[in-house]
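To assess whether ligand presence alters the predicted conformation, the chain was also submitted together with guanine. Input:
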Amino acid sequence: TGTLAIRGRLLSFDADPAVEGEAPSVRFIEDGIVVIRDGIIVEVGEGPVVARRLEAGIAVIDHRPHLVMPGFIDPHLHLPQTQVIASYGQELMEWLAKYTFPEELRYGDSAVSEEASRFLLDTLAANGTTTAAAYCTSHQVSAEAFFTEADRRGLRMLAGKVMMDRNAPPGLLDTPQSGYDQTKELIETFHGRGRLEVAITPRFAPTSSEAQLDAAKALAAEYPGLPIQTHLSENKAEIAFVAEAFPWSKDYTDVYERYGLVRPRALFGHCIHLSDRERSALADKGASAIFCPTSNLFLGSGLYDLAASRAVGLSTGIATDIGGGTSYSMLTTAAEGYKVLALKGQKLRAFEAFHMLTAGNAAAMGIGDKVGRLEKGYEADLVVLDTHSTAPLRRRMERVQSLSEELFALMILGDERATVATYAMGRKIYDRYHAGHRPLAP
Ligand code: GUN
Ligand code: FE
């Protein structure tokens, strides 16, 4: 609590491009100040002007010459997959069976879930990520551990207990009833505590029976404002599996539509091999696709088609998908997204990418009025970035001519070493000069 001010090169984006398909509007102040009161941004303006007006006694943290941006938002990752990142040689379905499910079995132990939650949230902070949408495991304790730790740190986090009742080891299976009851209990305990939100989280159609999808449908109907997260159309073998398991379905998306899971705040991870019908159905119902480039490349899943999504007005977020994904860095994630789209003959401009990492991902998650922008009334979750953090970046910066070139180089060459500091509700949760010495998190 109290008032503080942060000075730096302020960078923020409007919620949406003024014109569909156009670049988002950038708000950049070369020397700016963000004033924060009780964790909320109360003023954003020109540094010299705001500084003159600030009451004496208000601390100004001067981060010049670094960039000050809204904290990054990662709309798809898995708490229990830190230790399966870089497991060699399999596509999705085999990767799940061989590496991921055995690892997730460990999370029935609350000590394992607690330690992993601390590690994940420390690592996100070090990467400048202040909000994420997380899959825990099917164990209630994994979700309880994650929510408890996120709340202790005062973070805005969205997470869910995974619902899965078939096609996985017995120790990972819940039942339609227990998945329903446990999700409901989590909602009652954690939803709305601090900045936490519970997401209804059926893992994906292959691991849920129709009875379980019915239970997810009941939860979705009981809690119409709640986020939903699942996976959709990531891999060809997965799609064939769904077609066989749900013989009545027109396509993969139809399964989720049938169970009332396609709606605003529903986040569909991957969405690579969608038909036009499916893309339009997602768009028309206000759901979002989440592009996970490092995961899609690592697992050989395929190349996301951003132009096709934009053509039908399907909003797209971009995420790490740890641990199918290989980097916690949203800068690296954007860089790999750029390369995926380049292979599709599409381009991701720097302003579009940084918009996606902040205001765009916030909008996809339905929290675009709370985080993702440097605006009065927004929560003061910030990342401070050094665009000269490594030798290649410093060398490149000697040639850049504009902000957009500078940001593009930061996105392609930058990583967690660019994070100078991270703030949640105006409280510093990461500082690169403390890293390795003493944790800043409470
Ligand atoms: N589909 C269902 N579960 C998973 C998962 O854990 N990771 C990825 N990448 N895809 C999935
Ligand atoms: Fe995933």
